[in-house]
Amino acid sequence: MTTPPKHLQPEIEAKIDALLSQMTLLEKVGQLTQLGASIVGGFDFTAFMENPDPELLKDIQRDFHEDWIKEGAVGSYLGVQGADEINRLQKIAIEESRLGIPLIFGLDVIHGYRTIFPIPLAEACSWEPELARQTAEIAAREAAAAGLHWTFAPMVDIARDARWGRIAEGSGEDPFLGSAFAAARVRGFQGDNLADPQHLAACAKHYIGYGGALAGRDYNTVEMALQTLYEIYLPPFAAAVEAGVATFMSAFNDLNGVPTTANRFTLTDILRGQLGFRGFVVSDSNSIGELVTHGYAADRKDAGQKALQAGVDMDMVTESYRWGIPELVETGELPLEVVDEAVRRVLRVKFLLGLFDHPYRSDAKMESATQLRADHLEIAREAARRAIVLLKNEQGILPLKENIQKIAVIGPLADSAFDMLGSWSFTGSYKNAVTILAGIKAATEAEVLYASGCETNAQQPEDFSAAWEIANQADVVVAVMGESARMSGEAASRLELGLPGNQEALLKALKATGKPLVVILSNGRPLAVPWVAQNADALLETWQLGLQAGPAVADVLFGAYNPSGKLAATFPYAVGQTPIYYNHPNTGRPAGDFWFTSKYIDGPVTPLYPFGFGLSYTTFAYADLDVEVDAAKITIRANVTNTGGLSGEEVVQLYLADPVASRVRPVKELKGFQKILLAPGETRKVTFELTHSSLGFYDAELRYVVEPGQFKVWMGPNSAEGLESEFWISRELLLG
Ligand code: NOJ
Question: Which residue has its alpha carbon closest to ligand 1 atom 3?
Fold first, then answer.
């Protein structure tokens, strides 16, 4: 087994020494340079965005600067696809460059390569990291078969603000849940052995604080206490290091005034010094060049120097290292050792990937045999149905009963294959996606009527008559509403969090028919939809579920699968509440009836749906919470019973609070979860064990401390409900 980069291997370090001693400065800088191909010829991107037919991508003419490969002046490519093309470029590096150092090829394989899985936020709602490990492993298998070595995933940014479109790409708002998913995805992408040609090097991104963008606007300023950085934003990155992640990506944002792409404190002191990371850091796309725009560097050369000295080893597409570093070294402004150390880190990952021995890790035959395999699609369906969160189910209207004869499926997202894929799915094709309408039709003998009803985001009033007509004929209306794929992801922040365009107006018209109304949401972020929550008879959050969206939704709708997802991010009641998250600190005036409290005068302070919330077709009861404290650990137990008539899974959640501390602490924090399957009537004792050190926090001097005293504990079905107890930890106990 190849040990992950956290631990050095002397034989690899010796090989790196030998190479370094032969390399010219240009060759060294080449290893730190990642190019994206420049597009030549007249490819019409606007037309492609309007009709995203993957066939059109074949027409792109690219220039890879092959002369750079021969000179040894490039070490990596971003965005090259296909085993043949990758092998062709690799061959130039191996056979025509002086030292024959292999190139590393990276791409954004975020939630699948050809087999597109649910968006990461959706997967997190399964609360099953093992499932995410499996989908990452399949993504790696397909992408590696297509010649790739490296994915720019997982995205492990904590996101507490639903306006930020990139909330779709991560695991939501919680550091504990986020860490579990970060580690699982790293393991899935990388496997046990980076040299295994069925896996990829992973990349924890975007380091760091990117999700804290002010006002939820992408790329925006980030200001936060360092304690918040350590307690909330850092843990998933630390978990990725712990899981052996090979690379990191620095971010676009500044953090308290210092861009994260030139931040020595975060990139070197924390990442290398405190977390012990031994892989390499790549910048985000042009984030080195943007140091100039930030007003942190004077020009591209200055930017390159600042990024490299801070700890960014590889420059993604700015070419700042290539054009600035040699001169800086020659004039003595930059020590050669800084360059050598960065080259060492890049070469280390190339050695761990086995690229020196096996530079061609796949071929076209293996590539085509590996894509969209039946077993991959099966997992895609499983992952998709487990990502669905049941938010409301009045009178048990779901699952739909067998006596239903006519179903009106209405809504702009009901038959939209492209939108099922979500953002970062350009390697897949919507042509392979099964829409929700198709899924429903395939799963029922009832007559299925369909009208789109409105566009996703129309700016003018629309005619709802076709939808109205079929709704009136049907026994039940299933309305599929939400966001198009392009409304979340990078650079897709929103001002409003309601249903876009005329969708809510259409829902109101459908409600007026008096027919039972089942609303299926498909979107990339939490939405503020109080009218829907109040008026729908049933509400299913299905996110963007990938290729198998249709079958997965149908499984839940008709009861082949009992929904088990729980929200990984809080749903605000109104956009004005954002950022809203369950683990907020205490205030001196918590919201209450008294006027002078922390509340709004025009709406609730509580969310529409809290973090961790999700229903099932069965019901669960919690009883007998019991806490035991000893010198080694705290043991918390409760009995969970399936009190309904169907077998079902419950995500049992454990929360903790430290009510009196030397710093104001969150009202509660997730400290554990277990997903259990219970037959009707079955009771299970669920046990959590916590170490004393898991009760700590960063004090005013940034020291991690556990303070003795009282702690509160909850075990329950979500962050707002559950059995409550307390326990005490004495100073003597902590001192052992
Ligand atoms: C910019 C994005 O921020 C990042 O997530 C991605 O990996 C790079 N572009 C490369 O595509």
Answer: 284
